[in-house]
Specification:
With 318 residues, the protein is an all-alpha fold. The protein is built from 22 helices and no strands.
Length: 318
Amino acid sequence: MEVKGRAVSTLVSRLSSVSEQIRCESLSELRLMTKNDAQSRSLIVHAGALPYLSETLYSSSHLPQEDAAATLLNLSISSREALMSTHGLLDAISHVLSHHNSSSSSSAVQSCAATLHSLLVVDEYRPIIGSKRDIIYSLVDILKYRKSPQRSIKDALKALFGIALHQSNRSTMVDLGVIPPLFSLVVVGGHAGIVEDASAVVAQVAGCEESELAFRRVSGLGVLVDLLDSGTGSSLRTKENAVSALLNLAKWGGDRAAEDVKDLGSGILSEIADVAVNGSEKGKTKAVELLKMVASGGIDGKVFDDLQLNRLINPCSE
């Protein structure tokens, strides 16, 4: 371990070399080390690498920028507190993301978005990262940009999902225009994984008062209902996300949104019931809650009998 520590210290010290070649070689070695040797990560952090890695994100050369971003991602697995304590790190990540369609390497953009997702695992970091409007704006812009690689879109969606887990961040996300590109991805995303990830963010963002108008402008309610339709080929995870979105919209979007959800009528009940029966435990719970809400809007009792919904809504009544 002592030998490894000395080797790490030597590599980190070379990050401040006046020679670009030496700096690049050290970055490349550190990237491989953090990928293949979990024990080395804490040594690299303690050796003082983080400020150099953060600064390198501003590099106009793609290779060192990519190596620095990938190394930070690897370090975020076990050193989240150290990363969040590094002065200017979030600004450096924002710089990479904001230039996703110009000077930044696509690989660096993906690593930076993935690093955010890793950091957002920690509850107390969500309001901190969510307060960086420039980060949210850039992540949303990645979704909007027609030439964004699918990997960049997926990493941006995962970061946005983590940000949306904090209630107070959702209104900021709506304000910065996240709703239209999310629904665009849901409708024409093509790749099943993209649709699942986009609908997961939709479900979270639905949980704020500002979502009602934003959803209405993109006919979001209708899109969510379509996702539940078995004829659209949606995965079970996507259907669960649609259920969660409808439920959050009804709870947080105000009286009008709640009435809109209640007025969905009997046509959607069988699709919600499918999630209540076949979904994950969390999905089942939310589906039953949504069934009760839609039922409160006034559904013909015969429909309930035909679909055997009473057993789902009132499991102890028999």
